[in-house]
């Protein structure tokens, strides 16, 4: 099978009160790879975490300033992660003590999924559903 999908150019991005704790959670509990972290002490200016099958997320520390150019509220993000080995990711998350908010189950649209919350309340759904094929142009 030939993969004709272009490389990812859309990155979910969010803020965290304790960005380093969220990074640790995503690496340890879900299996993200820490690709880049630019920080000044405890303040993470920018982090890129790659999801091994493709894509990733970007995050940084919340700025409690009135002119914050990215005023995202910590703990309100949600993302869906696709994996071919959901049992392994589920076991890893449980072993790391992740708060499971939705148990592993079969979905009505094919595949399986479960969901956890990170230490700040962001929701991470993990499943086997890859989405529908792209329409021909």
TrEMBL record:
Residues 112-137 are annotated as: Disordered. It comes from the Bacteria. InterPro entries: Glyas_Bleomycin-R_OHBP_Dase, Glyas_Fos-R_dOase_dom, VOC_core. Residues 8-129 form the VOC domain. This is Glyoxalase. It comes from Modestobacter marinus.
